[in-house]
Amino acid sequence: MRAVAGRTLAFIDQQAPGAFDLLGTSHGGAIAMWVAALMAERGDRRLQRLILSAPANPWSPHGRILAPFVAQRPVSVALRSTLPRVSFAWGFFIRRLYANPDRMPSGTIEGYSAALAVERSWEYGFRVLETWLEDLEMLKTLLPTLADVPTLLVWGEADPAVYLESAEPLREYFRNCEYATLPGVGHLPYEEAPEEFNRIVTEFLRRPI
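RE: above sequence
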């Protein structure tokens, strides 16, 4: 995660020389926290606010159990050779991220499937899993450096990927933290309930720091 955060920060350095807000979701939420920690390391104060939508974190039991299992070499080898070839099944796993798949926007499965079809995308995903627990434990040690960053946590109450119960221990690390949950919504609230998600985020960004 640190390497991905470093590349993300290099991109930010090129694109956002001034103050900015940072939003991350799921694995990207963990990366956003890593970026904030790297900026704190170097005394960079451009980051104004963090918006984290169901970010991967050290307290979500699903990831702590599933990631090490999938990263085991026999399992990993089997899945690496199988998953890229069963594109007909990708939609099943994508639908599972929604509490109500009927709210899935048109073209969602095609969009995510296009990314999964990119050569070596699966290789990258499995390499992320190999150091998943180690990276999350390191992130946990870095969280105190983010305590003063105004932060918004947004969670779907029916999130099947990063469990809602992990939000409470995470929010305790932030002194200025707003927390919003969306009933009957899964892991992708910005897609499943976009109007409500956008309202929550917009109201947060409009408040003075």
